[in-house]
């Protein structure tokens, strides 16, 4: 029997934005810097996780690596796991320039990364989970549960929808981003909603709980951005993935 079933989702295939493209990767930080304060975002994540010097963290979908660099200064080791080799190379170069040596870069993803070291203290993913359709989000959560220590924390931030007022919320969100970053960002958000797999918060609530996570805090912003801090309370009853 092969390692994965023939119906395994191909997470290596880029959907929506092509993060395998060097031009896309090189433009990423400048584009996101127009509407995000990434350093503050990352500090807030690290604060909410109460990261300690001895902790080990995995980030799924680190992109250009801003979070893993900030995290690496506050903990023992970080694993940066991304399906885009181009993103990984870019992030690795930036960390080397900053003299950072405690990050391991892994080409893989939510569904394929095999964590062979000890279970970790925290797993973080920011603006990446929407790359998986909902069934596969469930499998990914089971897998991540298996990589965490009992009591370990899972932080999820992404475009996530509240069901109420979804259309006006999305329109307001796009208008706000367009004011901050110009008309191209509107096209990006439209493509995200059309082609990628951002889902409802109530679906994520259920997926998280069924994968053995307790939702410690959940905040929804303007009906379209969700942040979850979760704790692994149990091994997932359905096992660690497929
Ligand atoms: C929008 S970027 C987010 C980057 C960064 N976390 C941030 O907050 O700016 C999404 C990243 O997730 C990666 N990605 C897409 N699908 C993935 C998967 N199945 N597993 C891990 N990473 C994935 C992409 O290659 C890309 O680097």
Keywords:
alpha/beta; 7-stranded mixed sheet; single chain; globular; 242 residues; binds S-adenosylmethionine; 8 helices
Q: How would you explain this protein's 3D organization?
A:
The protein has 242 residues and is of the alpha/beta class. It contains 8 helices and 7 strands, in the order ααβαβαββαβαααββ. It has helices at residues 22-33, 38-49, 66-72, 85-97, 134-147, 166-181, 183-195, 201-210; strands at 56-60, 77-82, 103-107, 120-126, 148-159, 213-221, 225-232. Strands 3-2-1-4-5-7-6 form a 7-stranded mixed sheet, with helices on both faces. Helix 2 (38-49) crosses helix 3 (66-72), helix 5 (134-147) packs parallel to helix 8 and helix 6 runs antiparallel to helix 7. It is globular. The model has no long low-confidence stretch (mean pLDDT 96). It binds S-adenosylmethionine. S-adenosylmethionine is lined by residues 11, 19, 32, 60-63, 81-84, 87, 109-110, 126-128, 131-132.
Element-by-element helix/strand order: HHEHEHEEHEHHHEE
The major β-sheet equals: 7 strands, mixed
In which range does the helix fraction lie? Answer: 40-55%
Q: Which percent range describes the beta-strand content? A: 15-25%
- The Rg value, from CA coordinates, equals 17 Å
Strand pairing plus helix content: what structural class? alpha/beta
